[in-house]
Write a structure and sequence with these properties.
The complex is a heterodimer of chains A (280) and B (249).
Chain A lengths: L1 H33 L6 H5 L2 E2 L4 E2 L2 H32 L4 H13 L4 H15 L6 H25 L3 H9 L4 H30 L2 H4 L21 H11 L3 H34 L3
Antiparallel strand pairs in A: 1-2
Helix pairs in contact in A: 1-11, 3-6, 3-8, 3-10, 4-6, 5-6, 6-8, 7-8, 8-11, 10-11
Chain B lengths: L2 E12 L2 E12 L3 E5 L6 H7 L10 E9 L2 E2 L5 H7 E4 L10 H11 L5 H14 L3 H4 L12 H13 L5 E5 L7 H14 L4 E5 L3 H7 L2 E6 L2 E7 H6 L4 H7 L5
Parallel strand pairs in B: 3-8, 3-9, 6-7, 7-8
Antiparallel strand pairs in B: 1-2, 1-4, 4-5, 9-10
Helix pairs in contact in B: 3-4, 3-6, 4-6, 6-7
Classes of the chains: A mainly alpha (280), B alpha/beta (249).
Chain lengths: 280, 249
Amino acid sequence: MRKAFDSIWVLLSAIAYFSAVVFVIWVAIHLYALSRGKLSLAFLFTNPSSGMTAGGVFAPLFGSIYLALWVLIISAPIGVLAGVYFAEFAPDNTLTRLLRSSIRTLSGVPAIVYGLFGLAFFVRFMNLGLSLLASALTLSVMNLPVIITTTEEALRLVPNAQKEAAIALGANSWEVWRDVSFKYASSGIVSGLFLALSRALGETAPILLTGVVFYQPTVTLDPTKTFMALPYHIFILSTQHSKFTEVLPIAAASGFVLLLMVLFARILAYMYNRRIQRWL
Amino acid sequence: MAIKIEARDVSVYFGSTQILHNVNLGIEEKSVTAIIGPSGCGKTTFLRTLNRLNDLSPDFRLEGEILLDGENIYHMDPIVLRRRVGMVFQKPNPFPMSIFDNVAYGLRLQGIKDKHLLQEKVKSALIAAGLWEEVQNRLSSNAFDLSGGQQQRLCIARAIAVDPEVLLMDEPTSALDPAATSRVEELILELKKSYTIVLVTHNMYQAARVSDFTAFFLSGYLVEFNKTDVIFTNPRDERTQRYVTGKFG
């Protein structure tokens, strides 16, 4: 009886595991099939044209990557440093406990609420207008709780014996962080950053109200301008376009590109972890 | 012989709990002083007051004073203090770096960058720790590849590479097998020619084998402190007598 139960338990978890994998693969294959040969290198490097019924995804792709870069520049230093503070230096009192639980609550707030906040605060109040910067700031605010929490948790797993070894040799708190804590925690921190990055690439709601536009086939490095982004491009093509059947392959191909980008971000994170873990 | 470290009326609290009660103790230069006592008697806490490692706990508080060469260590910069008072821990805790980088770590913290000087100092620390023969051909391999006993000797090499005056050892052999233990004990006898050693151990035989002086702690009080042979053959306190003869603890 116990043995039978044990086998069922193993079987159930195996089924759950494989169904998750199968689902991802199925989405990829399905998107690829729907794209009907639209995918090519040229698709990545040409702009949408003829009322978005032809061409590629250059402007939305560039917009998404450039947006993600800004999100990383804004949220990584603040998020990681805040996580360091909570893990290493914050006193344990009512205020820090309140802050910590607020941060955890914030990571459950729906994306559209962040979008509304971004519209009210960055676009209107800070007068940034509809712009890539306003969108990047909104996504950063949304990502901060994730980065702070993953950083804090990664740092809490650093073995105390390692920190004490460095301290006993006369390391100051910066040196302990640089030589021990960061080494041990960096794979966790980097995972958090890439998770945040994937969200920045994939979210639509926060940028919808703060700067993304549906058609602007010129790319610019100026962050005060509006921009195109892949998820919104897909949304427009598949729900707002009058010639839906005609643009469906383009939408599917764009979806496939987005999927590849998120996968690429994951592979980078994985390679970094492998490199770190070899020494641990 | 001169007194290297002197504890004067030391009481230690963590929050509202008192861990050590009015400890008075003088540790002689270039000798091995063993601190023995049952688990929870405060021996490790006492050891960690000597390099101010307890300072890391936010609710730690110390009364009384601890003097290193007559100077109150709680008025010193803890980083300067820890360069003079090295420490070896209960479990070997090498860094996830190469063998060379482990030993060079403390030297690099002091700003030594010269390659030849580093090589020289790493080599002499490894020789002093009795590890050179075993690792000289693989200084660049990961320290985690060494056996437990080798790792502990590496940690000793790392501690003495920066040329401390005092070496604190917190049950340094408790995670090692008997052969590795006896190697570390031999090493301690060798090292006391150059360093003042304070050794916390729960192994009475180890205290008897390697130490010159022994302090017996019980429930946060220093019960008795004397030459090791006196403690083990003719203790004054009945509780010491009972502990060293294995009647409790």
